[in-house]
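Hello,

Following up on my earlier ticket. Below are the two sequence lines again, exactly as submitted.
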Amino acid sequence: MNQAITYQVDSLLQVLDFSAIGFLLPLLFFILFSFYRFSERIVFWSAIAAILASYGSLFYFLKPLVNPHQYYILDWFSIAQSKFQITLLIDDTCFLVLSMIHLVTLMVIIFSGYYMKAELRFEKYFAYILFFFTAMFGLVLSNNLFLTYIFWELVGFASYALIGFWRTKDSAILANKKAFIINRIGDLGFLAAICILFNQFQTLNIHSIEVMLQTSPKDLPALYLASFAIIIAVIAKSAQFPLHVWLPDAMEGPTPVSALIHAATMVIAGVYLLLRIAFFFPPEALLFLKYIAIISMVMASLFAIVQQDIKKILAYSTISQIGFMLFAISIGNQPFALFHLLTHAFFKAALFLTAGVFIHENKTQDIRNLTGAAKQQPIAFIAFSIAAAALIGLPFTAAYFSKEAILFSAIQQHGLDVFNILLLFSVLLTSIYIARIWFYLFAKKDSSNIPQAKSVAMNLPIVVLAMASLFAAFSASPFYLQAFWFTLGTETIAPMFSIGIILLSVAGVLAVKFIPAILLMDEKNAIVYFLKNGAFIDRFYAYLFVKPIQQIAALLKWLDKHIVDGIVNGIANFAIVIANFSDWFDRNIIDGLVNLIALFAKRMGDIIRITQTGRVQTYFLLALMLMAIVVWFIY
Amino acid sequence: MDINISHFLFISAALFAIGFYAAIRRRNIILVLIGIELMVNAAVINLVAFANVNTKANAADGKLMALFAIVLSAAAIALALAIVVKVYQYFNTINPDQIEEFKN
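Thanks for your patience. The regenerated structure is below:
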């Protein structure tokens, strides 16, 4: 590792210069698109311009800072004696991941111009994408766990918003809720890890933790807890067993989003975090990670084989491939985990985008109805084939290097133990599930009357990403890794081993070709039924967590309705009774008294009015009589 | 038979009673006025009668008072008759039983 230079800065303005302004454009356009409506054309081109500007800044501003590594430390806030700092680390890893994110985002945005054309809330879609891009940018750059946590949440939110982008679709809303809730479990793990590490080291800067670990003795129980908590966070974010269930459902989102967020960038955040922080993991934690990785790989590959939905196959494939990266980390081969992360991002984005073309043109996700794609969309089909070859790990693709290197180092370290046999088994399964899609796409269609669109926005991204999946993107030679624009650990692979792996993969492809049952995957078969339902893990969760919670909720509702409402209604009824009595009292007693007085007055009046005849003579008589009485009394 | 003050008083009381009866009982308002005039005159007779039995220096006071009363009652009757004319023009009757405006 190169020696790092640390800068303590007072303000980020000391670091940034004019060429860094491109990084702010995506954020700016995100804010603009969130609040104002623009025409599709303006939104589309300004989103492209924002990513291109950011790309330019990446090369003109960030690239020169990579060698030697640089830390920027900026005081953030302090609580009591504890100081929190914004720490940015600029190094090779960061630069490689960022350039991958830029390229994939750019291609996805261009592709979205085709895929999301004339969609409602077009500008909101791009706003979410740019928001996600900015958050992911921060996540990659951050070297402080708390800052990372913030961006970790923000990318999770962007994922939530985009899975549920078609918000009138019930299944999409259920899927984004599921993704959100399951990611909360992981966030809890992350938060726990942050608390433990802060308690242990009084700092959250990853670099400082690394330095302190080298100089001071370790408190092992705390590190165990922290590493397991981190692994839980990674499992949720990167969709590993047993928290993988959200990713296949997340395919309800638009396909370019699946390519960007749920294949190439966000789900690898867990891997990236481990690359940064796995240095303090005790061996037991790494073993635990290895179990998780191998279970995820084999399980997801098995699920992928029986699916008929092309996006779900690719989603399970993503789970499996991320498991592969975690496996590489667990055996200590971190450089190649990073390398596989990059190659996987390109070929998986290419697979998703080409799948998007087939889905969009044929209006179906079922691979049995996607036959004839080779004829209808030759460019997309060739791009798909290249990306599929990369997934299998065939020569002339970049993933060939990353995959073989990880497999080789695994077998070199531990021989053919249970893990490695399962690993090879999942390699075989990988070639089977992807070949299955390929043969369906390649198959002839009886009648094809669906008009096929052809546009630059559709073809350019898949061609670029397919080319980025080829060996030339990373190595000068197709057969051994001769990296020319980045540095990795040295790779040594025995040629015989490589041929063995290729044969294993080809065997998988041939199995699909010659065993029709694999293509069909008849659901009446009990094993297929079991796998197709995701080994009933969803149903298991439903019975273990969802149902009880719903029952508790129902109980609370009943309590609310009968006890709380009963008390409230009782009080209300009591008040009504009181009011009724008061009403009766008012009507009968008070009114009675008033009426009685009035009646008395009326009777008196009636008596008096007898004299008021209106006749002059009567008045005269009365006056005289009155006078007579007065005189009588006076004398 | 010696004529003393009680005879005058009897005459006066009888006259007053007759006038009172006429005033409250007659159906013609002119006759009612005449009844009232009788009552006034009964009072005037009383005044004169008491003036005659008074032996003090101011013995003429009662007679003067009687003269005033006669004048005033004449004036009052003149006014009352004028009112009667108006009442007749307004109600087309001079029967007090049919004039019940005071009731309202």
